[in-house]
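hiii, so i know i said id send this last week but things got crazy w the move. better late than never?? heres the sequnce for the chain we talked about at the cafe, plus the structure i predicted for it. fair warning i was half asleep when i ran it
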Amino acid sequence: MTEAPASYAKIGGAPARLPPLGSTGFLARLHKRYFASPLMSVVTVLLAAITVWALAGLFRWAIWDAVWYAPEGAACRDAAGACWAVIAEKYRVMLFGAFPYAEQWRGGVIIALWLVWGVLTATNLFAVSLRLLGWLIVFIATIALLQGGIFGMPHVGTDLWGGLPLTFLIFGGTVAGGLPLAILLALGRRSQLPAIRFLSVATIECVRGIPLLVVLFFAALILPLFLPDQLNVDKLVRAEIGMIIFFAAYAAEVVRGGLQALPDGQEEAAKALGLSYSQRMRKIVLPQALAISIPALFNDIIRAFKNTTFFSILGLFDVLGATKAALQDPNWVRYGLEGYLFVFLLYFLICSGMSLYGRSLEQANARRGRKVER
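okay and structure toks below
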């Protein structure tokens, strides 16, 4: 009988060898990503040179040669850089539109309320019910401060509302009214009752088939021709209703996608437990469907904020319309680029904040899902 050959492997032999020098660390990653081949090195150097040249020119125009203070714009006419003095001179018109000058502190309070509560909401320090209650209070306070007529504040008509407070009011009303309507339309489209399903489908398809401008024109200008005087309401309210329906038609399809992504077993298991339709939707189906729909829903929410600019065609000046009006001054009309860059910065910061909040909600849902799987 032959013996099995002994193994040549040595237990506890030489230690593991280190990777070759220059294959790890920041310089190694930089070389691998940008200088791995001669062509990649040439492209990297060329793009870096163009970027440096562009940033240097931007710095000179925006900072080094810029004019920050120029009464009546005299110093801006001979300057080689930007004229940021137009912002310092016209910021009140840009932010508050035609709102009475002596009452613009009310607009400042509104902007502070929205920004502060928006930041507190994003930090998730409070329960969802408390956050929603806070937004309801902010919304009511916005209307009360804009309208006045209470606590000694003079009454201001809606034709004088404008600027960033009006933008916040339109946006908040659109999301607050449009999201519940979108959920109802999405559920109605999946309803077993033919009449409800037909009405939901007809509303969604008709509204999605026409531009927002047509919806606003119809709500603000054509609808009053068919309504009796008793049912005629303010132009701002009619346009806001049009915005809500337009937002709901698009968001309904997003919510429907979330509903269809759920396994049928979720609702069947809830039925087996004896839950009613409203209980199944409220406790089982909708929370999961809305969590799935968050990325697409925030697309619609951010788009709703930017759609507020369409109100300027109805004579209601949001922050963009107010900026256009402010730049009609002959002393400052040539510095429109600086004015629109200011508006761009406002929209960019607010929309970026909403995008980051939506991403944090996605990550929270993902963490919650991983805990459930464990």
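btw The mean pLDDT is 87. thought thatd interest u
miss u guys!!
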